[in-house]
């Protein structure tokens, strides 16, 4: 996989079997179904300058919108949530997965503290500490 960083923005070119490539880029006004011309324009602006890429055809193209959602509270009464139940992120980069794993570790530590009688407000602390982390991801 090759990432090209250009003033116009990022484009990712990922080789697949059979000489096919997946092209991924952030575009403000992306077409619903990009054609070869759209992809060629994108690569001309953001791709390699020395060995330009020529787009022959588009096998499949789509527009993907990044959704970021977060629960208002991670704790309500006796209910606690973590991971995808608490926040949804773009799958790119694994932000949601990594944040969810961190949630699970923090929640396990908080539950352990409560069960061992060390900290009575550990579950509320979990909620107050983890929500801002998920908001920044």
Question: What's the helix and strand layout?
Answer:
Elements: E1 2-6, E2 9-15, E3 21-25, H1 36-46, E4 69-70, E5 75-76, E6 79-80, E7 87-88, H2 95-115, H3 122-136
Antiparallel strand pairs: 1-2, 2-3, 4-7, 5-6
Helix pairs in contact: 2-3
Describe this structure in words.
This protein has 2 domains: 1-65, no CATH class; 69-136. Helices cover 34% and strands 18% of the residues. It has helices at residues 36-46, 95-115, 122-136, and strands at residues 2-6, 9-15, 21-25, 69-70, 75-76, 79-80, 87-88. Strands 1-2-3 form a 3-stranded antiparallel beta sheet, with helices on one face. It has a two-stranded antiparallel sheet with strand order 4-7. β1 and β2 form a beta hairpin. The longest helix is centred in the C-terminal third of the chain and has 21 residues, at 95-115. The radius of gyration is 21 Å and the shape is elongated. The two termini are 24 Å apart.
